[in-house]
Specification:
- The protein is mainly alpha-helical and about 110 residues long.
- About 70% of the residues lie in helices and about 10% in strands.
- The chain contains 4 helices and 2 strands.
- Strands 1-2 form a two-stranded antiparallel ribbon.
- Strand 1 and strand 2 form a beta hairpin.
- Helix 2 packs antiparallel against helix 3 and helix 2 runs parallel beside helix 4.
Length: about 110
């Protein structure tokens, strides 16, 4: 069965569930606040040079999509390496959670700037 090791281990379920939840919240925020916007918005600004990078909705969905791909790769690698090296599997899982948390923080920062 695909992802059988992930489903039977409580810690991996918690880690990947939290990362999926954080990424779902980030995607929901992007869709809610930027889904119907056609105007460019601020993606990055600097205290010295002010606005550095403007983007549209596809850039925001690209951030969430990239995070989804990274978490999916970590999910597959954690499942494949579970029988050989369980610690590495846990590291992949908690790294996926950290990546999803950082993406959520970035989305909140972009929302605050706009």
């Amino acid at each position: 069965m695909i992802l059988a090791h992930i489903l039977k281990d409580k810690y991996l379920r918690i880690a990947f569930g939290a990362s999926g939840g954080a990424l779902a919240v980030a995607g929901w925020l992007v869709y809610t606040y930027f889904g119907h916007t056609t105007a460019p918005f601020i993606l990055h600004f600097d205290a010295y040079e002010k606005i550095d990078f403007l983007g549209d909705t596809t850039k925001m969905f690209g951030i969430v999509g990239t995070g989804f791909v990274m978490i999916l790769i970590n999910l597959v690698l954690a499942d494949l390496l579970y029988t050989r090296e369980r610690f590495l599997s846990y590291m992949f899982a908690w790294t996926a959670t950290a990546v999803a948390g950082l993406i959520l923080i970035a989305i909140f920062a972009i929302l605050g700037a706009n």
